[in-house]
Every structure is written in structure tokens, then in C-alpha cells.
Design a protein that fits this description.
The chain is an alpha+beta fold. It has two domains: 1-30; 33-211, Glutaredoxin (3-Layer(aba) Sandwich), CATH 3.40.30.10. Helices cover 39% and strands 17% of the residues. It has helices at residues 3-26, 50-60, 93-96, 112-128, 143-153, 166-171, 200-211; strands spanning 34-35, 81-84, 90-92, 102-107, 133-138, 159-161, 176-177, 179-183, 189-193. Strands 3-2-6-5-4-8-9 form a seven-stranded mixed β-sheet. It has a two-stranded antiparallel ribbon with strand order 1-7. Helix 2 (50-60) runs parallel beside helix 5 (143-153) and helix 4 crosses helix 7. The chain starts with a helix and ends in a 5-residue tail after the last helix.
Length: 216
């Protein structure tokens, strides 16, 4: 191989490596979602103390997390306790999701498609009322940033802080965000939807038939 050919090959290798690194940095993934990356080792940062979170929580003004139902809830989520982002209390996840259809939405503050989808989820919850519970699961250890993102969007859905991504692991959700999990009232998984939604009508069309709720 000539010297110029070797230089050309070397430059091509470098360009391919740089392109792959940029792809990973941007979190490219099929279907408009983003690569969720590696789970964190903790649910939130050391900086996210109760005192530091007080103002972001007040700004977000989230709806309360659900109270436990009478049943045991989804078997895969039993034993998982997460912090309710709205007030900092710990919530035993499975009982809180018992006896009702649930739409779990897995997202992170830095995920652009997640931010686009969250207002549609809030509108879907408004339409469904008590027939379906929408609970968002913030999958990044920067809890402050998650609260500020919700405040910015004006989305007040109940939210749990899950920096370790325990919910995704327990339910075997693909490693992309946003992703949604539809749970039937008996706790069984009806659908896993690793894709973003654009509006409440699209959410209802994808979710409601699998849980027996009419699409309005």
C-alpha cells in the first residue's frame, strides 16, 4: 500500500470513530427515541438534598403520588420503593399501582422527545380522569433538573424519582427514552411502548384498547 493510501485509510478510520462517538453523544436510537445510556448507581445526586429540592418542588407543584390500593399490585414491581418527586416521601410502588389501569412513562430531563411528549400525557390524563393513572418515572439522578423541566413544561403529573432505573429493569423495558408501560388493573403488563407520542389521541389509540377503556 502506498503512503498516500495509508494516510487515506487512517483518516477514514478516524472519521468513522468520530462519527460513532457523536452518534452515542446525541443518543441516537430508532423511532425518534434516545439511547438511555447506563443506569446511575444512585437515585439522586448528593446535591439534591431536601433543602435544595424545596424550591424546585414548589415550582413544579406536582400532583400527589397515588395512595396504595387494596391489592398487592404488579408482581414485577413488588419490593421497589421510590421517592415521590413532588414531596420527597417514599412510595412502595406496587401497592400504589394496584387495582387500576396505569400508564407508566419513563423519561429524563435531557431527553428532547420526552419533553415533547409530556404535555400530551398530561392532556391524556385530564381526559381519562380516574379511569387511568398516568405516573411518570424520572430516570436520571439529577432530580432538580427533572423538577425544573416539569415546571418549565407546566406538567403536573405525579412523578417518582428513579435514577437507578429500577422500574425499567424490573419490567424489561428497552433502553430508550421515552418509553411507556401499560399495566392492567390486575397488575399484568398489557403493552410496552418504546416510542414517543405526539398527542393525547395517539396515546389513547395505543393504550386504551389493551386495558378495556373506550377511546373518546
Amino acid at each position: 500500500m502506498s503512503r498516500s493510501a495509508r494516510w487515506t485509510a487512517a483518516v477514514l478510520i478516524i472519521l468513522v470513530a468520530l462519527g460513532y462517538a457523536l452518534w452515542r453523544e446525541l443518543g441516537a436510537a430508532p423511532g425518534g427515541s434516545v439511547d438511555a445510556g447506563s443506569p446511575a448507581a444512585r437515585d439522586h445526586r448528593d446535591a439534591d438534598t431536601p433543602a435544595a429540592l424545596a424550591e424546585p418542588r414548589a415550582r413544579a407543584d406536582l400532583s400527589p403520588c397515588p395512595a396504595p390500593g387494596a391489592g398487592a399490585g404488579p408482581a414485577a414491581l413488588r419490593g421497589i420503593s421510590l421517592e415521590c418527586a413532588g414531596d420527597g416521601t417514599m412510595m412502595d410502588l406496587a401497592p400504589a399501582l394496584a387495582d387500576r389501569p396505569v400508564l407508566l412513562n419513563l423519561w429524563a430531563y435531557w431527553c428532547g422527545p420526552c419533553a415533547d411528549e409530556l404535555p400530551a400525557l398530561a392532556e391524556y390524563q385530564r381526559r381519562m380522569g380516574d379511569r387511568v393513572l398516568v405516573l411518570t418515572v424520572h430516570q436520571d439522578e439529577n432530580e432538580t433538573a427533572g423538577l425544573l423541566r416539569l415546571a418549565e413544561l407546566g406538567v403536573r403529573l405525579p412523578t417518582v424519582q428513579d435514577g437507578r432505573r429500577l422500574v425499567a429493569a424490573a419490567l424489561k423495558v428497552p433502553n430508550v427514552m421515552p418509553a411507556s408501560v401499560v399495566l392492567r388493573a390486575d397488575g399484568s403488563v398489557a403493552e410496552i411502548l418504546p416510542r414517543p407520542f405526539t398527542d393525547a389521541d395517539e396515546i389513547a389509540a395505543a393504550v386504551n384498547p389493551s386495558i378495556g377503556v373506550p377511546v373518546e
